[in-house]
């Protein structure tokens, strides 16, 4: 059974996609896919209970979806074309479909383990991608091939360990990095407080109180992060900034971060 947080996040996603009928149909289909839900749940079990990492399950993948939709829409409203549009091989909605698929499946590889999980995610996601695209575009093999390929690039590139080239994949890279608030660390911290290697990820995420994605002042997208303690800067400098720097969407991003009540640091403008 889905959690209250999952259901609430799904409603937000559908609200943000209401202008895109095909993408809405895709999302509704994936939200009802029992196999995908089981895979997301098991990925979270492995991540939190077995490995002691932050949330990498259904809530995280839905939050990354929201982040990606926000950023892609801001770029669209700013007159910036996606890679599919620029290359004249697809529409903005095609790009949105690829981004949503990637966001909802990018961490499935955590079912296997942390190392190389982006590659494992692709292997596990391909049958699901084929299934949903065949339902959406039964008579359009071009769309199926293009959207599938773009989704795979975004999934395999979300750890900034592999060079990516499309704007769409670059958005997933940043959207993933933006899900860093204390909610992701709540469960692992409550399960086990004994110290071990890698704890900095949990404690730094626990210090992040707010991540805002809005229209920027000098660049199309502004990411503004608020934290309760300096330890949160680890998330910014070691996780998010690394992903932004590796992203084809970097040129469109303003990045600010700071402790509540103190002056914000500007990381990118």
Protein model, in words:
The protein is α+β, with helices and mostly antiparallel strands and 269 residues long. The chain has a single domain, classed as Catalytic domain of cyclic nucleotide phosphodiesterase 4b2b, CATH 1.10.1300. Helices cover 59% and strands 10% of the residues. The protein is built from twelve helices and four strands. Strands 1-2-3-4 form a four-stranded mixed β-sheet. The chain starts with a helix and ends with a strand. 46% of the residues are buried. The mean pLDDT is 91.
Order of helical and strand elements: HHHHHHHHHHHEEHEE
Helix % is 55-70%
> Helical region count?
12
Shape: globular
Q: Radius of gyration in whole Å, from Cα?
A: 18 Å
CATH architecture level-2 label: Orthogonal Bundle
Provide the descriptors you would attach to this structure in a database record.
269 residues, alpha+beta, 12 helices
Topology overview:
Blueprint: H1 4-16, H2 21-31, H3 34-50, H4 58-77, H5 83-86, H6 92-105, H7 117-136, H8 141-156, H9 167-178, H10 183-191, H11 199-207, E1 208-215, E2 221-227, H12 233-246, E3 253-259, E4 265-268
Parallel strand pairs: 2-3
Antiparallel strand pairs: 1-2, 3-4
Helix pairs in contact: 1-4, 2-6, 4-6, 4-9, 6-8, 6-9, 7-8, 8-9, 9-12, 10-11
């Amino acid at each position: 059974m889905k959690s209250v947080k999952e259901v609430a996040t799904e409603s937000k996603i559908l609200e943000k996609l209401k202008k895109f009928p095909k993408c809405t149909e895709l999302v509704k289909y994936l939200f009802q896919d029992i196999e995908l839900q089981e895979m997301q749940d098991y990925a979270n079990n492995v991540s939190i209970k077995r490995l002691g990492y932050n949330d990498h399950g259904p809530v995280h993948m839905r939050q990354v979806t929201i982040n990606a939709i926000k950023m892609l829409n801001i770029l669209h409203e700013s007159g910036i074309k996606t890679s599919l549009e620029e290359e004249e091989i697809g529409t903005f909605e095609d790009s949105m479909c690829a981004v949503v698929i990637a966001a909802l499946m990018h961490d499935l590889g955590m079912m296997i383990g942390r190392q190389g999980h982006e590659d494992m995610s692709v292997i596990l996601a391909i049958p699901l991608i084929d299934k949903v695209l065949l339902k959406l575009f039964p008579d359009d093999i071009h769309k199926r091939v293009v959207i599938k390929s773009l989704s795979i690039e975004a999934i395999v590139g979300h750890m900034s360990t592999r060079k990516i080239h499309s704007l769409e994949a670059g958005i997933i890279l940043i959207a993933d990095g933006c899900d860093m608030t204390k909610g992701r660390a709540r469960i692992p911290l409550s399960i086990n407080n004994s110290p071990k290697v890698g704890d900095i990820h949990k404690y730094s995420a626990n210090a992040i109180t707010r991540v805002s994605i809005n229209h920027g002042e000098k660049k199309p997208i502004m990411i503004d992060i608020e934290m309760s303690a300096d330890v949160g800067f680890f998330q910014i400098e070691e996780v998010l900034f690394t992903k932004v720097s590796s992203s084809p969407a970097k040129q469109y991003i303003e990045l600010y971060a700071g402790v509540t009540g103190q002056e914000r640091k500007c990381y990118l403008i």
